[in-house]
Design goal:
The protein is mostly helical. Helix content is 61%, strand content 5%. Among the domains are: 111 residues, no CATH class; 84 residues, no CATH class. The protein has 17 helices and 4 strands. Strands 1-2-4-3 form a 4-stranded mixed beta sheet. A hairpin with an 8-residue loop joins strand 3 and strand 4.
């Protein structure tokens, strides 16, 4: 009996499934499910959770992430359950996004693109988090794939294009606008396809309808909401943030103001190699002729457009901001690596295959080292939230209650307290002040307790 394993062919969809499963496994193994909720996550999750009152939902945010986490957050306050749910959803989302490119590339090239993107520390770090950037990335990747496949009467792909743009708009309206502009220009100016343009605009309108309604209901209109959102971000305008993004490439997760030095500069080579790989992909596509060139240029242009708002429009940096650009550039980057293997003579292919394999191995190892460092720091920092919440509960701060001060939003969520509004009669109120600093005048006669046992957050609690 022949017991040899039948490996899937180079164009088998199983490669895409394997990439999605590997991505989920990496998130579960290397980004601990016990990692606590960050400030932003607590804002999003609290909107649909019964564990604590909803935090202030500021004008810069959109409702897509609360809707995404609602199936779990509405049922349980378990952060571990939320992490597992999002990890599985991310792996599935990556597979689906790559599948939209199925007839445009061999499956092994798309699998390579999935490895390039999913192997980034920032992708594995934010995949299981209740944040919009990963979902904007996957939605954008799917949108461009559907756009390229929406030929003739392909109504299903036009529907997929509209749905993908709507999804990006729902989770990150700003990204959706910068994605939609090059897609509409390409649809009208290059493909002469009003159907594609209509699908993009329709998706933008459908996904942004809730945001517009909320703008009028809560913030006085679209202009007022945009102005308020810009004020929170330090103002929108021309800011050359590329050096800041380079400094934050390997952490910290938020660089504001970005005055840190460059971490692990030897691991930044891939970032500078990215345009070289895209250029190789363009060269290969020009040689191939036909529609190949457009299927390389479109994701590259869309990726650069989405990145432009973060590189030139705000004055601080965060590695997660560029996730949508990385997802879109991963496809032409994979084309470039594939061309490095298949574009040489048969005698050189084994050597080039070995070189590409070594590059991927070194890249994955370097990204894992950064991931391990960031996850360790995050777990330590977020564990302080639970310690402080437990200390406050031991001193009588239990629902109904209100918490303000240092890192008050995530701590209030863990304590089951409100973090916005004013306290009602009978509510317990706690003000967290950094150790060594004086409280405001209104709290100087409140009971003061020193919170002990924390690693990073050194605070005193003033309790009314």
């Amino acid at each position: 009996m022949d017991r040899r394993v039948a490996w899937p062919g180079s164009d088998s969809g199983w490669w895409l499934v394997a990439v999605g499963v590997a991505f989920t496994a990496a998130e579960l193994l290397f980004v601990s499910p016990r990692t606590g909720l960050s400030w932003d996550e607590a804002v999003y999750v609290s909107q649909v959770s019964g564990h604590a009152p909803a935090a202030w939902f500021d004008p810069a945010r959109a409702r897509g992430v609360p809707l995404l986490v609602a199936p779990v957050a509405a049922l349980t306050g378990s952060v571990a359950a939320l992490r597992v749910y999002l990890s599985v959803a991310c792996g599935l989302g990556l597979t689906v996004a790559l599948w939209t490119w199925r007839r445009l590339r061999p499956a092994w090239v798309l699998g390579l693109a999935g490895v390039l993107f999913g192997g980034l520390w920032v992708a594995q770090y934010y995949g299981p988090q209740a944040m919009p950037d990963m979902w904007s990335a996957l939605g954008g990747l799917a949108a461009v794939g559907c756009f390229l496949r929406a030929d003739g009467r392909a109504l299903a792909w036009l529907g997929g294009l509209g749905a993908s743009v709507a999804f990006v708009t729902l989770v990150r309206p700003g990204d959706a606008v910068y994605l939609a502009v090059p897609l509409v220009v390409a649809a009208i100016g290059v493909w002469r396809s009003w159907a594609r343009a209509a699908a993009v605009v329709g998706g933008l309108v459908a996904g942004g309808a809730e945001w517009v309604v909320e703008a009028y209901a809560r913030f006085g209109g679209i202009t007022s909401r945009l102005h308020a959102a810009g004020a929170e971000q330090g103002g929108f305008g021309l800011h050359f943030a590329l050096p800041d993004e380079l400094r934050a490439l390997n952490g910290p997760t938020l660089c504001r103001p970005c005055t840190v030095g460059v971490r692990y500069p030897e691991l930044d080579l891939w970032w500078f190699l990215l345009p070289v790989l895209v250029a190789l992909a363009v060269l290969a596509a020009r040689r191939a002729g036909g529609p190949a060139l457009s299927s390389v240029l479109l994701p590259a242009v869309c990726g650069l457009c989405v990145a432009a708002q973060y590189l030139f429009m705000i004055n601080y940096a965060a590695p997660r901001f560029l996730l949508p650009a990385y997802a879109l550039l991963a496809v032409p980057a994979a084309d470039g690596l594939a061309f490095g293997v298949t574009g040489v003579g048969r005698d050189l292919r084994p050597a080039m295959t070995a070189a590409v394999t070594c590059f991927l191995a070194v890249q994955l190892l370097g990204q894992h080292l950064v991931l391990d460092h960031e996850v360790g720091g995050t777990v330590t920092f977020h564990d302080d939230y639970t310690r402080i919440a437990a200390a406050l509960a031991a001193r009588g701060v239990r629902p109904p209650c209100l918490i303000q001060g240092v890192q008050y939003i995530p701590i209030a969520f863990y304590a089951g307290c409100a973090s916005a509004g004013t306290a009602a009669p009978g509510d317990h109120v706690a003000l967290l002040i950094q150790a060594g600093r004086r409280p405001p005048a209104y709290a100087r006669n409140w009971r003061v307790y020193r919170i002990t046992g924390t690693t990073v957050l050194k605070v005193n609690a003033y309790i009314r």
